[in-house]
Amino acid sequence: MLRFLECGTSIIKIKGVKELKEVSYNVMPDRIEAGTILIGVAMTGGKVHLKKVIPEHISPILHKLEEIGCEIKTNKNSIVLVSPKKLKSTEFKTMPYPGFPTDLQSIFACMLTIAKGTSIVTENIFENRFKIFSELKRMGAKANIEGKTLVIKGVRKLHGAEVQSTDLRGGAALVLAGLVAKGTTKVNNIEYILRGYENLDEKLNSLGADIIRGGE
Domains of the chain (ranges plus CATH)? Predict the structure, then answer.
């Protein structure tokens, strides 16, 4: 077997062995995909029972979803979310695990564009995580970027537009924005989205969305 030395530090040293043995391993659920689905349901005013998920892996997301008005119930490997009639504003900062994940920042921030009041998002992990907001503004979102802080003023409704996906999570955010926008939204450059989500359109359609995937 592999021998790991100094685990839990900033350095991991691996001492090799002559051969590896077979093992049975269950891949953990994708916490970012789980968070994306929950946020999409919260945005659209729906209800979902999400199975085969580990709630503790996305506890910061669940806490913030409750803060903006969602009703959430969890057990060992499932989450039930019921969205409110109107979402509330909030504040959050991205942090390394187990903090709020940067990969859900643009998606959660997208939801806050239709929340009542002013929300503040601080990105502490990656630069350029806010660039998708130039596309969301084309759909009617109101937000200002101040360094690593995004100030979002919620609007009553987004409207459909042709927009460009510039990265994986930003592209997913645009898809969710299209679900609540009045009219038709066309998201281009979906290769970014397909890189990180398997059949996202089919999963959202199974929940009641109306998404048609074009050429890849």
Answer: 28-198 (3.65.10.10)
